[in-house]
Amino acid sequence: MTITKKFMEQLDNLYSTFSEFNNPDSDNIVWIDGCLVQYSQDEKHLLRAVGNIENYFIKEGTTRICRGAFSDCISLKSLVIPNSVTFIDDYAFQGCENLKTIIIPSGVKAIGKHAFEGCSKLANIEISNTIESIGERAFGCCHALEKITIPESVKLLGDGVFDGCVSLKTIVFEGVVEKIGSISGWMQFGKYGPIYGEYLYGDDWEKEMREYGYDIDYFDEERLEYKLEKERRRWRNLKILIPFGKEVHYVNLLNYYHFMITRDPFDVHNYSLIATNEDVENGVEDDCGVVYSIDGERLLKCRNKTIGKYSIKEGTTIICNEAFSCSSLTDIHIPNSVICIGKNAFERCKLTEIHLPDSVWLIEEKAFYMCKFLHKIFISGSVTHIGEHAFLFCRHIESIYVDPKNNNFDSRNNCNAIIETNANTLVIGCASTIIPDSVTHIGNGAFACQRSLSSIQIPKSVVHIGNAAFFECYALSDIYIPESVTYIGYNAFTGCYNVRSILVDKNNKHYDSRNDCNAIIDTNNNLLIRGCDSTVIPESITHIGNAAFSCCSFSKIHIPASVIHIGDYAFEFCKNLCEIIIPKSVTHMGKYVFECCESLSQIIVPIGSRSKTEKMLQPSLKSKIIEKANADVVITNSKLNVLNGNTINNFKKKNGEFAGSYAQDVMGYSDEDIYDAFEGDPDAYWNID
After folding, report:
1. Looking at the domain assignment, is residue 446 inside a domain?
2. Which value, in Å, is the radius of gyration of the alpha carbons in the chain?
3. CATH code, 155
């Protein structure tokens, strides 16, 4: 007897215990309420609903919903099942097309075959933690179902239980299901003969097939192979979430379809990743100063900070949080038993390359944080999760490769990056990355601190640029934002101090570079979010964003009188900035606006604005505030406020050739400088209040 047949017999035995009332005699029928619902004489079994029912509360005390009780009741929209029910029989709700939600209460132990098959609008199914068995095709063709959780109590899942669930994206297993039939119900032909789910029939498979009731002459191996491949592709994006530590069990059960099996994010069991002082003291230390748990499954801590090369012991499954953090580790061999690499496990190590074996499932956040010598990364086919900032500040990465067998991440088109496959999100890039035109999101910190990244082409497919995506890419010289981008995160280009050109596509509806200003502006909010040395702030700008000019090298910049808000760190690390004029329109300045502006000697404000400005600035800058007449006079490239000729000439006679001009009076340029800059005709560019 095959495993599959044994499995099905176990289900049949379970169902047979409830078979007494499958075909009740009329003498045993009692009618309850005006809905024309038939119950058994003792009112414990709901036999059949024959009326036009939309909403129904099953009678308290009912223990069983019998075979086909609500079958094809297309008017049924909602149903309440009492806790007294212990069994939902075969076909009980088959074809209830308008049923949208079902809650299986505690007390129910089994759901029969085809019980909810064809409930095409059923989008929400809550299963209690008392159910032990779910029969074949129980939820088949529930087209609206996107996610379902299988509670810990369930031990048996029948064949094709989710067959035809075309919208199903996620199955969460809270416990260990002992037997799972084929998810889709297809009979599968493998290399050595037919396979049903995971189970291989014996050598004499033709005989067994006939015994199981199939006409062997019907099967066309080539045709079924084609169907099987189509089925595998259809289920390829289904995500399976499982309890931590049960990876091998579920891989063996479900690997035929290459599901994206991953750990349930709500079942992290972080205690396994945290090595307490007690764990380390009670652990076993090897000759290299590396401490393991007594059972050898967890690598707890490396006490030897001068360690160079090291091979982790076979049988180790977890590398704990901070295990090798800040050590001199240059070379690491990870055995094929390791499943998880903990948080900050290799932080600041001197590793030059990392090659993950096929056993690794999880790379936790900051696992390789600030490994600044790391230049080569290989991600194996088994990895299902890469934590945030796992490779952040690894500034010299040259080569990134993801095994093509990986269903969760890829390096499509040899792009030299790690891309989250389903989300089309580039999560880790390097100086040699070419962003594929299928990528829609650039993740948080994706290129952060890639110091040798001098240029990057953002394709028209990208709609989202994450926080700190290009943070401190010092060599980056130009930025182009295509029309497709709808979101740019904070600090996306902060610290890119060599940028000389910034351009937003003129067709972008969310951002712009109005007036060729060499900046990125949030269009709707008139917020300048990133500028550079050559930026001219447009007069329509009302807000200068956080760190908008951080690390720029200009010595002076004009803030127009339209600006009312200057964000945190707006001019941080502008080390050449020597003076700046704050117009009276500014009502808010954030934290550390001029942090580390070593050359800043004058903060010029209009007369009467000193007190207001002092309240907005940090105390150490109060002595640099200077009140000055005409400090808030506005000069722009497009709108000029020029006095009449007689007034200009009279002013010149009294005060000198260019005295009173914005360029001389406020910015401090000499007559000679102004003459050269404006080709002897500065009148059109100056403004007297």
Report:
1. no
2. 35
3. 3.80.10.10
Q: Which amino acid is at 516?
A: D
Look at residue 578 and tell me whether its pLDDT is greater than 70.
yes
Q: Are residues 74 and 161 in the same domain?
A: yes
Which residues make Cβ contacts (< 8 Å) with residue 581, sequence separation at least 6?
558, 559, 604, 605, 631, 632, 666
Region 396-412: what's the mean pLDDT? 94
66 and 42 co-located in one domain: yes
What is each CA distance from 105 to 127, 186, 682, 685, in whole angstroms? 7, 31, 84, 79
Q: Give the separation between CA 236 and CA 243, rounded to whole angstroms.
A: 20
Judge whether 292 lies within some domain: no
Residues 167, 253 within the same domain = yes
The CA-atom distances, in angstroms, between 86 and each of 17, 60, 66, 267, 635 are 12, 12, 11, 28, 81
Domain of residue 665: give its range: 645-685
Q: Are strands 29-32 and 45-49 parallel, antiparallel or unpaired?
A: unpaired
Query: Does residue 311 belong to any structural domain of this protein?
Result: no
Q: Is 385 a member of any domain?
A: no
* Domain end among 235, 263, 291: 263
By DSSP bridging, strand 298-302 and strand 318-319 are parallel
Whether residue 259 sits in one domain with residue 191: yes
- How many CB atoms lie under 10 A from the CB of residue 623? 9
Residue 207 backbone dihedrals phi, psi, to 5 degrees? -65, -45
Please indicate, yes or no, whether residues 115 and 175 belong to a single structural domain of this protein.
yes
Domain final residue pick, 206, 235, 263: 263
Please answer whether residues 450 and 431 qualify as being in contact, where contact means their C-beta atoms are separated by less than 8 angstroms. yes
DSSP state of 619: G
Alpha-carbon span 22 to 610, nearest angstrom: 90
Pair of tokens at residue 524: 């709707």
Q: Do 42 and 182 fall within a single domain? A: yes
CA quadruple 130, 135, 141, 146: dihedral sign: positive
Are 40 and 47 within 8 A, CB to CB?
A: yes
Quickly list H helices, 255-405: 277-282
Ranked by mean pLDDT, the top range of 169-173, 197-201, 640-644 is: 169-173
Q: What's the rounded Cα separation, in Å, for the pair 475 and 281?
A: 47
pLDDT of residue 8: 46
Query: Nearest 5 degrees, angle CA 542-CA 547-CA 553?
Result: 105
Asked if 653 and 612 sit in the same domain, the reply is: no
Each residue's pLDDT tens digit, 446-498 = 999 999 999 999 999 999 999 999 999 999 999 999 999 999 998 999 999 99
> pLDDT tens digits for 19-40?
443 444 445 667 666 667 889 9
Q: How many other CB atoms are there within 10 angstroms of residue 498's CB atom? A: 15
Q: Is 506 exposed, middle or buried (0-12, 13-18, 19+ CB in 10 A)?
A: exposed
